[in-house]
Amino acid sequence: MRNIENLTTKTGPDDAGLNILLTEARLEERRARAEAMAARLDSLACHITSRQLNHVEAAELLRVTAEAIQNEAQEIH
What we know:
The chain is mainly alpha-helical. Helices cover 74% and strands 0% of the residues.
C-alpha cells in the first residue's frame, strides 16, 4: 500500500492578498499574450500588403504561422 498524504489548505482572510496577486499575474500574462498575438497579426498584415500576396499566398503564410505558434505552445507544455 502506498503512503498517501492528503493536505488541506485552509482559505480565509489570510490568503486574500495571495489570491489577488495570483489573479493580477494571470491577467498580466493574458495581456502579454494578447499583445504578442496582435503584434504577430500586424506583422503578417504588413508582410502580405508589402509583398502584395494574393489570397492563396496569404492563406499559406497564415497556415505556416499557425503551425509555428502551435509548435511554440507544445514546447511550453
